[in-house]
Amino acid sequence: MPYIDLTAELIELVERLEPIARPGGRGRTMMIMGTGRQTGASTVAREFARIAAARSKRGVWLFDLDLASNPQRRLLVPQKGTAFDAGFGRNPFWRVEPEVARARLVARQAEQRLYVTEFQRAPGEVQRLSLRSAPDYWNAVRQSIDLAVVDAPGNNRAVLALAADMDGVILVSDERRPNPDAINARREAIESRGGVVAGLILNRAPDRGQWAA
């Protein structure tokens, strides 16, 4: 898959995380969330993870919260290869009903030091799937990898349950259709759940992206 033309501000976002892993070997968890549909947040998350992976030592994992479709895995790893367990030995950030249903999160290598998650379930067994706060899980992630980039669908409010577990949330809005009300509403929703909005990316600008901290 060819690389897209990245804005200087997206590269700057990675540089602000230097070193990618903090002193003591503790990694970071960053969520990328659109303020609505079709803002390009998934593309931003994917390219952000690629840039960060090139500068990491223990690796970068791209967590795709579209658990039903796994679009990031399909884009980055078209042919299924070896899968690694992504449970980290902790209670996960997802819940299935009934609890005995067979389901798991795995990670597949997309590029050197870059892995992407895929949610797997036994056909017909999972009746309901939900997201939940799991601070112990994300702490285990920080101890194991340099950076987790969490791609959160902008049209799914369930992802807000994870906001407080992140080191920061980067909002992505469409430069061609700016909606200040939607941006403020999403910021308030994140902060009301204990999350931290670390910045805003205006995507698809006519000449160059803009970054507002």
TrEMBL record:
It comes from the Bacteria. PANTHER family: FERRIC ENTEROBACTIN TRANSPORT PROTEIN FEPE, TYROSINE-PROTEIN KINASE. Coiled coil: none annotated. This is Sugar kinase. It comes from Hyphobacterium vulgare. SUPFAM superfamilies: P-loop containing nucleoside triphosphate hydrolases.
